[in-house]
Amino acid sequence: MSIAPAQMDALREKIRRIEAGERVSRGFLPFGAPEIDGRLPGGGLALGALHEVAGGGNGALDGAAAALFAAGILARTHGQILWCVSPDLFAPALAQAGLHPDRVLCIDTRSDKEVLACMEEGLRHGGLAGVVGEISRLAMTPSRRLQLAAETSGTLAIAIRRWRRPAEATDFGQPTASTTRWRVSALPASPLPVPGVGRPRWLVELIRAKAGECAEFEVEQCDETGRIAIPAELVHRPAAAGDGRERAVA
Amino acid sequence: MGANAPSLDTPLVLIGHEGRKRVVLAADQAARREGLRPGMAASKAQALVANLVIMDADPDADRTALEKLAIWMQRHFAPIVAPDSDGLMLDITGVAHLFGGEKAMLTEMVRKLAGVGIGAKIAAAPTYGAAHALARHVANPAFMLDADKLADALALLPVSALRLPGDILDALKQLGFDRIEELSKTPRAPLALRFGAVIGNRLDQAFGRADEPFDPILPAEMAHVRQNFAEPIGAPETLARYTTKLVEQLCAELEVKGLGARKLDLLFFRVDNRIEVIRIGTAKPVRDAKRLAKLLCDKIETVDPGFGVETMTLTALIAEPLSYRAIATSLADAPTPDVSGLIDTLANWMGEERLYRVAPVESDLPERAVQRVAAMAPPAGTTWPAHWPRPLRLLNPPERVETMALLPDRPPVFFTWRGRQRKVANADGPERIFGEWWKAKAETHMVRDYFQVEDEAGERFWLYRAGDGQDPATGPQTWFLHGIFA
Question: What is the pTM of this model?
Answer without folding.
Answer: 0.72
